[in-house]
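Human: I wish I could look at a protein chain and see how it folds. This is the protein in question:
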Amino acid sequence: MNYSYPISIDWSTEEIVKVVQFFEAIEKVYHQGVKRNELMDKYRKFKDVVPSIGEEKRIFREFEDVSGFSSYKVVKMMKENSGDILIKL
């Protein structure tokens, strides 16, 4: 994996960590799966940093372009399910 995560220079170190942890969870969904509750927690923290839907879509696109992983598909699957199931693609 030789790519960088989409981050903003305007974010604090703590905010960058939240965004990176969310994208690491997205990668993990594709490799081994992540419990829905864990993923939901990381997504909520991501949304604290990126509350705008438009900005979220832009960042998701940037991440998919460099990594091949669709954050949109993962978040959609997470929202469509309930309970602490394993989310895996």
